[in-house]
Amino acid sequence: MTQDTSATEWATGYRVAGGPGPTSVDLEELAQVCRVLERAADRLDQASWALLRAAQACDALSPAGLEARRALAAAREGRGAPWRVAEHLRRLAAALRRVVELYTHAESVAHRALRCGVVAVAGTLGEMPLVAAAVGAAGTGLAAVVGGWALAGSVSRSVLLRRPDPIGRAVVGALAAGARDLPGRLTADGRAELEILAVGAFVRAARPGLQIPTLRPVPGGARTLFGPLPPAGPTALLVRVDPPQLPTPRTTADVLDNVALSYDREPTLRTLGMPEGVLSVQRLTHPDGTRAWVVEIPGTETWDLNATNSMDLTTNGRLLGGLPDDVTAAVITAMRVSGIAPDEPVMLAGHSQGGMVAMSVAAAVSSAYSVRAVVTVGAPDIPQPAPAGVQVRHYRHTEDLVPQLDGTPDRPAAGVTIVTRDLGATGGPAVPSVDEAHAVARYVETAVRADRELAGSPGMRSFDAAAGDVLGPSGTTAVTRQFEVTRDPAVVAAQPPRVLPSR
């Protein structure tokens, strides 16, 4: 299970974890209470109006009419007057909409024991690779025997009956449906997280010497795999001449939409056309003349190791392992080249690997720049947390496998908010593929919907305030600078500035 904090939203399929506050409530019950209170306030207003009309209808010249007017006025204006109660109910409904809804699903004892058991078994197998190989071979052999007998039986029945075997077709159909639904099932119930945990524990334990078990083995496993690789780089950071000017972001969703533009390779009427390895730095000028900055970082663009494009598998592994990487160094260099002053507020944003880079940069530059906010979509956690004072928001899809690659439950905090959307329950694909669940365009849609669906949620408030300090009020303008990160040896030899290789 993951630690989890609900928001003040009553729409099904959204969850906000983190932010300040200790209160626990049921979202649907709270929604119903708010609706009942508001309906009651409307009825009380109608009653107040009816009392006024009744008083006006009384005969002002007769003693009975005067007495009735006084009684109706007392009922309409007294301490228990309907309009006063209606006003109180509306304030109460508004307070309920703003109240902190922190229902914390702390890891249960059973789940923690399960994680410990997974780490212990995988770690033991990692310490004894020959035993692990034997277990794997036995499992593979058993599966092959069972599958072979099932296939042989299906073929035999087809030959004897002289028609396709219905059992075989049913088995194939069930396997196909299972394969289609498997990613969502693995992510929804946390099995993928446990499997990554096991892999991390196994790889970490395979290092020479006895390894002390830990419930966060993925960083150690990533260091085992990627630490011995030759250094990636050297890397050049190219300043793009006359880059396209990205739209001025007004919301967090707008910032993420600019991140999505980094993936547009072919220019069309609706796309800008970007080379690989491009990150954007936007200088925002507020109406009062103050400046702020938004740094937008795309995710993985190639799955090669030590590729020419730095946004590769090597960078992923080094980020998960907490090792230095050249994309983080490139972003920091781009911030320096752009002229960001130490006291000017900065927002970092990234998708997938770009989200990990954004967190890595925030951890590295806390003393040099005023990073106010970091927003990531579809990104695993990295070992380095953001420093105190930085507001962090992670967008996650229930069906997205990538955020679970760190092998640990989500850990929201006062400065870390996790917004999770169930795509199948909120208008997305009923059974999204791995690519659909992780697509940056789908995450932009989620950010737009979250701004609408979760408006006013206390869990969203702190980050929204920090992002607002950066994005500024209406009338803010933006100038975009772009940088291309590359390890192309010919470019590196000819083009400063350089970024040191990962070590």
From TrEMBL:
Organism domain of life: Bacteria
Residue ranges annotated for the Thioesterase domain, each copy included: 326-466
InterPro entries in the record: AB_hydrolase_fold (IPR029058), Thioesterase (IPR001031)
Protein name: Thioesterase domain-containing protein
